[in-house]
Amino acid sequence: MQLQSLAVSRLDLVYIALGAIFVFFGFASCVAAAIRRRGDASVLIWLGTWSGMYGTSLLLRQPTVLAAMPHWLQFIAPFTVNAISFLLVVVGLLVWSELTLGKMRLLTRGLAIAGLAIALAGIWNFIATGSGNSLQPENNLLAVLALIALTAVVLVPRLSRKYVAFPNRILTAATLVFMAEALFRNLWGGLRLPYIELPLLDEGAFAFFLFSFAYVAGEKVFANERRLLAIESELEVARQIQASILPAATPEVDMLRIAASYLPMTAVGGDFYEFVQVDRHRIGFLVADVSGHGVPAALISTMLKVAMQSVTSCSDRPAEVLRGLNRVLSGQLRGQLISAAYLWIDTELKKAWYSSAGHPPLLRWRAKTMEQIESNGLLFGVLPDIEYPVSEIALHPGDRFLLYTDGVVEPENEAGDAFGTSELERVVRKYPLSTPAELSTHLLEELRQWQPASVAQQDDITLLVIDVI
Which pLDDT value is given to residue 4? Predict the structure, then answer.
């Protein structure tokens, strides 16, 4: 009798240790998911919940653990164990859904919904009547059907490649072991056959399956991590390439003082600007904005750099520059559109010429007055051959020109009001004696203050400030 008591107590300790391990593993998985805060971390949440629930149920079924609990916890322990016995199937299916694809994912989620309905009914019946056997056969049948379907998918290579996100031999072996044990347990219980005591069979199979699943889930998470790192590395290369096609410095032109600011919304942007300098007296300024954001817009903005080489011979004629760019790019844009503005300045003649394609107006600050100069044609990509009107502007000392993209004027404050040209004029009026570089800094700071702190930059920002001195 003493040897038998000793054996039982050792087995109890094994069950308690396993339960504690499952609970700890579940807690660690949920903490890891909380730290990552990414979509692929959901598999860790469900896996952690599954493990924690199983470990909790295992602990609550040990007399030694129950005896050490307060009375109120002892009272709710049977209800908790009953609820977990139903919900384990539901959470297990949700774990599987994270590693399945297509129709198989829809099937697992559909079975999970059916399992939840059975679980709620079974839990309510247990609370109302105290009978824990009601709806258990239905729950067992659902588990058996799910196991058969999942095992077939894992074992058949053609199905595995199509419906399993990360098929491998470890998951296949663990599924076979768990399926055999679970089928035995559910069918035996569902058929109400005499109970057979097989210590640690259930727990061992679950542990093997759980940790194999954790390995596969970790592979999925880290594979996604590697892909994200690769994408970030490629974006950094793209950012460097885009930076290389923008002017490295502002040009030196007699009678002009120039500053340029460029802030992409993401690593790469769809804005572009270029200086076309002929000599110390003559220079062209191009600003363009590709529709959309990110890599697609950045690729098209890179095409603008190449296209500019084909129109340098007519750089002193803004209409021809825009017409030539539109002609070159129209067949390459694949539905994208580009707004652009081109300003040509000749300081010897003390004149400037301006033309634009669907772009925000050129702003000129003169004699404490802000003037909007519009000379607009259609956006690039609408029609292959378009004429663009040109405005001729007389230059005077003290003139200040602002060429910009709509990322400067479209940001909204908490009330939903756009920054607009009125705020732009207020900033220019506030700093009349600042240099172009200083004005650019002040303007970008005012933009940051205009937007709520919680709102990220919504568009690429490009700003050219040109002073006639």
Answer: 46
Regarding whether 128 and 80 lie in a shared domain, the answer is yes
pLDDT at 330: 84
In this structure, the answer to whether residues 147 and 294 fall within a common structural domain is no
> How far apart are the C-alpha atoms of 244 and 241, rounded to whole Å?
5
Per the structure, the complete domain to which residue 273 belongs is given by: 248-468
Query: Which of helix, strand or coil describes residue 409?
Result: coil
pLDDT bin (cut points 50, 70, 90) of residue 9 is low
Residue 35 has pLDDT above 80, yes or no: no
pLDDT tops 50 at residue 1 = no
* Signed CA dihedral, 170, 174, 179, 180: sign only: positive
The answer to whether residue 317 scores a pLDDT higher than 80 is: yes
Cα(465)–Cα(2) distance, integer angstroms:
93
For the ranges 109-118, 204-213, 270-279, the lowest mean pLDDT is seen at 204-213
Other beta carbons within 10 angstroms of residue 141's beta carbon come to 14
Clarify whether residues 211 and 306 are in a common domain. Answer: no
Question: CATH number, domain at 145?
Answer: 1.20.1070
Per the listing, tokens 């568009």 go with 459
Residues 374 and 356 sit within 8 Å (Cβ to Cβ): yes
Residues 146-165: what's their mean pLDDT? 81
CA distances from residue 9 to 4, 65, 200, 207, 209 in whole angstroms, order as listed: 9, 12, 14, 21, 26
Instruction: Give the SS3 label for residue 395.
Output: coil
Give residue 349's identity as a one-letter amino acid code: L
DSSP readout, 364-396?
EEETTEEEEE--EEPPBTS-SS-----EEEE--
Number of domains in the chain: 2
Residue 239 belongs to a domain = no
For residues 10 and 145, membership in a common domain is answered with yes
